[in-house]
């Protein structure tokens, strides 16, 4: 028994994906420093950084623990957490908070921890569950599995749309279509899903989106028309990033970000802080780290030992990738403001923990992508 356990431990250490883990830790460390700079002018800035550090520590521990679990076990565990996340989505629809601050009642208050967004964890359970059905479909077990895939996808997507959370809805929909594409389902299904999304989009625009979120989309095309809200945020962000030029104004010395000219600089517009204080060089380094992280995840998905692992990593990579691209895009004015944070960088405990849970699952797939001693001894 001792030799078997020792062999497992040695094999786990040898098979651990240090490249992925160190890349994520590097991005998170940069995020903490930038967050500290962004909150220097806040009265509760130290408290925000401390909470972010705590969430980071919890996330790292969870990622390491999850990486120890064989990802195939998530097929069973995932269903349980999927049901829990759906229940929480229903709860925040009727009892949630956040409409006054963030524009949608997508949060719930938890003692000590603070605010928590159930849709963050729902993204993970959504991907874990539909990956099971996609594996079966890819193996030729269509029919009822296609129906289950659509039903299990529609429930969380519909609940998030009903919360008026435009940004989070886009994440779910993007992941859904990416996984459809990767699965290689007949184009008639993809076309049908796209056609069905058109009336859903019209319905969402008319009945579900509030004026604030509609304005964000309208003024994306012409931000100069709105100098008081959404357009103001974009213009300020673009000017601040542009003022950083090549080398930036140095850390903690950004003129516009330190004076509070840029709104929500600790979360939605934290890339503005990077652009102004670290300049083009610093921004490019952050983007390169993000690109390398996503590229590593794509490599893991491609080299997974089975279809389920490949679908899992693909979905989680699409989830993080959409957040990265959308957040940076809205900071530089090429995408509308959606309120999506920059993964591993923006302030937000639930988002940080969720992203590390995703990394833990990806690590689990990476560790077991080859039938090593670690796998055979289980």
UniProtKB/TrEMBL annotation:
Its main location: membrane. One of its GO terms (cellular component) is cell division site. Coiled coil: none annotated. GO terms for biological process: cell division; regulation of cell shape. This is Rod shape determining protein RodA. It is a multi-pass membrane protein. It comes from the Bacteria. Keywords: Cell shape, Membrane, Transmembrane, Transmembrane helix. GO terms for molecular function: lipid-linked peptidoglycan transporter activity. The chain crosses the membrane at residues 18-38, 50-69, 76-94, 168-185, 190-208, 269-295, 307-325, 345-367.
